[in-house]
What does this fold into?
Amino acid sequence: GAAATPLGTTIKPGQTIDVAVKLTAPADAGEYTGNWMLRTNTGTAFGLGKNANGSFYVKIEVVNRTTIKDANITFDFTRNYCAADWRNAGGSLACPSMASDTKNGSIFRVLNPVMEIGNADDEAALVVTPNDGAGGTITGLYPAYKVKSGDHFKAEAACADQADKCDVTFQFGYRKPDGSIQALGTWVEKYDGNTSKIDIDLSGLVDQSLQFVLIVTNNGSSSGDIAVWFAPRITH
It folds into this structure.
């Protein structure tokens, strides 16, 4: 991006403004972070924190490979994860999160996930954490998808490696016209070396345009609840 971008208007203390800068992603795969500060009309730079000297940032991930290897995939939940509306029990979450957050909830993607007891793979996964407290949850509501004949939802549900206090409930479903969630499957996962391999036949929903949801809830507390949706996809 440009070294500086004018705001184009005067902002007084206490006011808010939406700021946009044009950035071009690098050609090489990897994670990239750009650090930014604001600058007064007299040239003084300022940012975040008590002393207003901390930068804020934009972080992106450049991917140049298929995130899931299923040759029959029709929708990839990991590739499109930030197109979803992610929420905790109290409201919206930024996508992606910078790290697992067992207090507020979090969501990010990994391309080389390691699941419980050190089981590793080279396909993409979503690492999710519900917010803390009774009823803590994280829900990802995806854009509408028209179900086709032969479609199945497939994934594997697990706790993350070394999350030995993990105790969560996974759920997959879709939003009904009244706003409620119709569950199509529920799986409880603890850090025990076992995972849930998921295969749901969507044939009863053919020709319907539905907003599918991925949900993870805590089972009382989110302490240690780092969960993994491995290779969630619709395939046929």
